[in-house]
């Protein structure tokens, strides 16, 4: 799957039509930065592409499979009672894999020692975000769908993220990312999709 | 398969860290069983008559208490999204969650039931029937509650709805469960209601996780 | 047949179809109920055992029959809504529940009124009464679940799941209650045969059949009307609804919330 095409996508939330006939395409090696005001439908778009939300009409060709994509939403998918390590190991097992060393992936996003074993409830906002980003390192997958991944990251975290993103795009992966701030660093294959203008 | 095991283990691990939260249904159940004799005169034969009902209704209420937050935590922290995306049938993951829930909240209650039964004045024969009826019936209660929890997880105000949804669905299990013990008390063979409980169990274990998966996807999509 | 079915499932076609059919059903239904009840009250002879008290069956039996039929119809609509994602079927599920609950409540109340003179008590834990009560709770569950969700599609599909699980449950409840009841020695007098009294004189039976048929037609008319309302609310922004030309439509309210807080807007591209 080297190209993802979206044709005439219509998505509504409750009473409101948030995406009204959106079409675009993303290829491997590209980073698509999705822009738009609050409520423009950025999150809804990513949720539909991941298969978490039904579209009212339109076509996604091909619909990415669960095992081919990473989804990092607003929520970090960390159970507060479990440590970052346990959360990551569970996530891997959920996808049929056992991680030889979950700590390595967490170290790659800058989490060390006590931060690995303490319950996730005791981590800071930025540390929790890093723990979520560790999934990107733990399992290589071609499609990344990231919803506001920069929220809560400090300068060092931003640099780490830039490095991850660059390496993934250069290696032939594709990224669809929403963010209200510009993506950090030099991003290869960067394109923009403005939902305010597309509508 | 490893995903199913992982869900099961995770539930147990979380429960182990949050003991107070998970012990609540059990304590509640114990209090119900304790207060009834205090309400009825201690030597009254009525106690013996009501014992199966007390224990069964207590089990139902305890199941209802625990099941309400079955999916709530995973919804709030985003884990549920990852389960929906994962490459495993959602019904299996739900079944694993419910199995863990049963082990945590219902199994201790099943194990304690002979003691409670004897304490409420039942004879040894009916006590064994009580044990078997709870063993066969409580998974049905938990799975029914799980389905109702899946139906309401997306609706913030639906917590109150849960008892109304669950009550009609749990009626047969309570009737056969209490009925088996009553039959044993009055010297009749309890086989028929126990078999009915077994049939309900088979139905619940196979159909309800699938219905719950459909309801859960709908509630979040 | 199938093309006809598919065309009928499109909201505008359904709306016009219902617009034409509903008045006929309503008139025929009310006429039959009226004739049946009149004959039942004034023409049919009094029962040799129960006297005039038996005459309540001309309300009670149709209500009880409909309480079950409506639930069955609702769950069939639920299956259609879940399998074919048909919008009209979603509306059908949600609109059937309050009607079914009303019939169930009517059956319960008339049953209690009947029970007082014949059994000497308003409420007896008889198999039929108990399963009817459970049925009422199933209906209330569907109604409550519908109101718990703000998104009309999510709400309707949740109701469809509940209706499906419930329809498996109804016969189980019925048999479990019957079994449970047979354990009581005292109440065998109140067995099902004694209540329905199957061997009826023709002069008693004819009005019953009339009010029964009338009730089904009446239900059909009410259901169609409610479904029309549901379809209009959901589709209020679409062209065909505006062309019907209803005045002061809530679609003009800012951010599209209906004044009544009822089901929401049309979604384009659904299987109509």
3D architecture notes:
The complex is a heterotrimer of chains A (199), B (221) and C (272). Chain A is an alpha/beta fold and 199 residues long. Chain A is built from 7 helices and 8 strands. Chain A has helices spanning 42-50, 84-94, 102-108, 114-117, 125-138, 155-170, 195-198, and strands at residues 3-13, 16-27, 31-35, 57-61, 69-72, 143-147, 174-178, 190-194. In chain A, β1 (3-13) and β2 form a beta hairpin. Chain A is globular, with a radius of gyration of 17 Å. Chain B has 221 residues and is mainly alpha-helical. The longest helix of chain B has 30 residues, at 90-119. Chain C has one domain (11-44, 54-256). In chain C, α5 packs antiparallel against α6. Residues 183-195 and 251-272 of chain C have low confidence and may be disordered. Chain B binds chain C through residues 147, 151-152, 154-155, 157-158, 161, 164-165, 167-169, 171-172, 175-176, 179, 182-183, 192-193, 196, 200, 203, 207-208, 211, 214-215, 218-219, 221, and chain C through 82, 134-135, 137-138, 140-141, 144-145, 148-149, 154, 157-158, 161-162, 164-166, 168-169, 172-173, 176-177, 179-180, 183.
Distance between the termini of chain A: 27 Å
Structural class of chain C: mainly alpha
Cross-sheet strand order for the largest sheet of chain A: 5-6-7-3-8
CATH architecture of chain A: 3-Layer(aba) Sandwich
Count of distinct structural domains of chain C: 1
Poorly predicted runs of chain C are: 183-195, 251-272
Oligomer: heterotrimer
The rough form of chain C would be described as globular
Please give the count of helices of chain A: 7
Q: What's the Cα radius of gyration of chain A?
A: 17 Å
| Poorly predicted sequence stretches spanning 5 or more consecutive residues of chain A | none
Main beta sheet of chain A, described? Answer: 5 strands, parallel
Task: State the end-to-end distance of chain C.
Answer: 17 Å
Task: Quickly list its features.
heterotrimer; B: 221 residues; mainly alpha; 9 helices; 84% helix; elongated; C: 272 residues; 0% strand; globular; disordered C terminus
């Amino acid at each position: 799957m080297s190209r993802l095409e979206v044709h005439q996508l219509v998505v509504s939330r409750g009473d409101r039509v948030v995406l009204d006939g959106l079409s675009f395409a993303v290829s491997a090696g590209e980073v698509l930065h999705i822009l738009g005001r609050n409520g423009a439908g950025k999150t809804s778009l990513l949720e539909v592409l991941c298969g978490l939300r039904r579209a009212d009409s339109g076509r996604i060709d091909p619909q990415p499979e669960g095992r081919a994509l990473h989804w990092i939403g607003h929520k970090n998918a960390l159970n507060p009672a479990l440590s970052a390590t346990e959360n990551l190991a569970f996530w891997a097992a959920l996808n049929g894999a056992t991680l030889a060393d979950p700590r390595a992936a967490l170290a790659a996003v800058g989490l060390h020692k006590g931060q690995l074993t303490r319950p996730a409830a005791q981590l800071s906002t930025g540390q929790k975000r890093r723990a979520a980003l560790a999934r990107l390192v733990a399992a290589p997958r071609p499609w990344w769908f990231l919803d506001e991944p920069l929220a809560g990251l400090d300068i060092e975290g931003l640099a780490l993220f830039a490095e991850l993103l660059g390496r993934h795009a250069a290696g032939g992966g594709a990224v669809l990312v929403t963010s209200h701030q510009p993506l950090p660093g030099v991003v290869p294959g960067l394109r923009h999709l403005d939902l305010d203008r597309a509508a | 398969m490893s995903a199913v095991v992982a869900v099961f283990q995770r539930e147990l691990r979380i429960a182990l860290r949050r003991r107070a939260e998970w012990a609540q249904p059990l304590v509640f159940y114990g209090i119900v069983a304790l207060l009834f004799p205090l309400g009825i005169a201690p030597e009254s034969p009525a106690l013996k008559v009501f014992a199966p009902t007390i224990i069964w209704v207590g089990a139902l209420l305890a199941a209802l208490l625990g099941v309400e937050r079955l999916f709530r935590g995973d919804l709030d922290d985003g884990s549920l999204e990852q389960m929906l995306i994962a490459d495993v049938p959602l019904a299996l993951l739900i079944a694993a969650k419910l199995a863990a829930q049963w082990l945590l909240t219902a199994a201790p209650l099943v194990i304690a039931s002979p003691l409670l039964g004897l304490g409420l004045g039942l004879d040894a024969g009916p006590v064994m029937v009580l044990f078997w009826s709870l063993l066969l019936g409580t998974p049905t209660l938990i799975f029914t509650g799980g389905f109702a929890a899946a139906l309401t997880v997306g609706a913030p105000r639906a917590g109150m709805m849960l008892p109304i949804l669950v009550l009609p669905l749990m009626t047969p299990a309570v009737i056969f469960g209490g009925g088996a013990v009553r039959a044993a008390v009055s010297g009749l063979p309890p086989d028929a209601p126990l078999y009915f409980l077994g049939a309900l169990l088979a139905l619940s274990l196979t159909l309800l996780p699938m219905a719950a998966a459909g309801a859960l996807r709908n509630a979040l999509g | 047949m199938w093309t006809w079915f598919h065309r009928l499932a499109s909201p505008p076609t359904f709306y016009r179809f219902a617009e034409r059919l509903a008045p006929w059903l309503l008139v025929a239904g009310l006429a039959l109920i009226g004739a049946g009840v009149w004959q039942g009250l004034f023409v049919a002879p009094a029962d040799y055992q129960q006297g005039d008290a038996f005459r309540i069956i001309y309300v009670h039996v149709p209500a009880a029959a409909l309480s079950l039929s409506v639930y069955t119809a609702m769950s069939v609509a639920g299956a259609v809504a879940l399998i074919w994602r048909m919008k009209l079927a979603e509306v059908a599920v949600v609109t059937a529940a309050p009607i079914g609950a009303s019939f169930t409540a009517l059956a319960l109340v008339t049953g209690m009124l009947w029970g007082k003179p014949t059994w000497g008590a308003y409420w007896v834990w008889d198999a039929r009464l108990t399963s009817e009560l459970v049925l009422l709770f199933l209906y209330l569950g569907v109604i409550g679940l519908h109101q718990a969700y703000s998104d009309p599609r999510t709400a309707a599909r949740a109701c469809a799941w509940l209706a499906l699980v419930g329809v498996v449950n109804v016969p189980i409840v019925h048999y479990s209650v019957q079994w449970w009841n047979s354990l009581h020695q005292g109440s065998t007098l109140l067995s099902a045969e004694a209540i329905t009294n199957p061997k009826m004189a023709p002069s008693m039976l004819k009005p019953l059949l009339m009010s029964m048929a009338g009730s089904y037609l009446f239900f059909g008319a009410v259901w169609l009307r409610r479904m029309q309302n549901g379809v209009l609310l959901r589709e209020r922004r679409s062209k065909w609804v505006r062309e019907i030309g209803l005045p002061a439509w809530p679609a003009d309210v800012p951010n599209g919330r209906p004044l009544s807080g009822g089901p929401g807007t049309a979604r384009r591209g659904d299987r109509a």
